[in-house]
Design a protein that fits this description.
By secondary structure, the protein is an alpha/beta fold. It folds into 2 domains: about 100 residues, 3-Layer(aba) Sandwich (Rossmann fold), CATH 3.40.50; about 130 residues, OB fold (Dihydrolipoamide Acetyltransferase, E2P). The chain is built from 6 helices and 16 strands. The strands form 4 sheets. It has a 5-stranded parallel beta sheet, sandwiched between helices. Strands 10-9-8-12-11 form a 5-stranded antiparallel beta sheet, covered by helices on one side. The radius of gyration is 20 Å and the shape is globular. The termini are far apart.
């Protein structure tokens, strides 16, 4: 069963959508419904929500800025909109899942099937990568559109979360784009000493060059990575361990 959350500023719309999902989407369970963005993020974190149905008008949140406000990089989002022109054209071109209001049964079924497929692919990718990591020491299989690329985890400098995929930057290359999201790499690479300083970045702690007190981290390739305020204490607690292995790690 896929756990879902409904986020819409209109209570009647929430109830109609919940009833429709319960009626025609047997593999989706509505865990919660709300009209508050902050409450939605809390539900996503506490109830392990996999799928969010989001009315684009809720809270005045811009359509493509919403993902940066969520607490989960694994979240599947289906946008709900009354727009009939520009917004729909943009979503179609970006391959974003959406439903036009009022929601039709056949369109909901189609989107639900697509979302189920995406979530299953993520789970299969996680299982494959974790097994590969166990059997090959630090050799990591990175799923790409063409297949898999295998590299040493300790050569990975950072992973950058994109809209629906991840850019993996290594000491040898900087153009490996994986077809899976940052959440998969977080589960795989944390045992190898990787840290999530920001929802969009996963970094190799052994390849940090500097920490800047204003809240950024410089990696060995000279790139700057942001450190989220809520992650700052966790990171500072790691400094003694990092400096024990790297004499050139400094603050300023």
């Amino acid at each position: 069963m896929i756990t879902s959350l409904l986020l819409d500023q209109q209570p009647d719309a929430l109830l109609r959508l919940e009833n429709k999902i319960n009626k025609i989407c047997p593999n989706i369970v509505v865990t919660a419904a709300t009209n508050c963005l902050q409450e939605a993020n809390q539900f996503i974190l506490e109830k392990k929500i996999e799928l969010l149905f989001l009315d684009v008008a809720t809270g005045g949140t811009p359509l493509f800025d919403f993902r940066s406000t969520t607490v989960s990089p694994d979240l599947e989002i289906v946008f709900l909109t009354k727009e009939k022109s520009l917004t729909l054209d943009v979503m179609k071109k970006c391959s974003i899942q959406y439903l036009s209001k009022p929601v039709l049964d056949k369109e909901l079924i189609s989107v639900a099937n697509a979302v189920e497929h995406n979530i299953q692919r993520k789970k299969e990718a996680t299982q494959f990568l974790l097994k590969r990591g166990k059997f090959k020491n630090d050799l990591i299989g990175i799923p790409t559109m063409e297949g898999y690329e295998f590299i040493s985890a300790h050569k990975i400098i950072r992973c950058e979360g994109l809209q629906k995929c991840t850019r993996v930057v290594t000491q040898d290359r900087s153009d490996i784009v994986s077809s899976y999201n940052l959440g998969v790499f977080k589960k795989l690479l944390q045992p190898f000493g990787f840290f999530l300083p920001h929802k969009s970045f996963l970094i190799n702690l052994s390849l940090i060059k500097k920490f800047h007190k204003e809240g950024t981290i410089t990696m060995v390739d000279g790139t700057y990575v942001p450190l989220a305020r809520r992650k700052r204490n966790d990171f500072l607690n790691l400094i003694p361990r990092i400096t024990g292995h790297r004499g050139d790690f400094i603050t300023r």
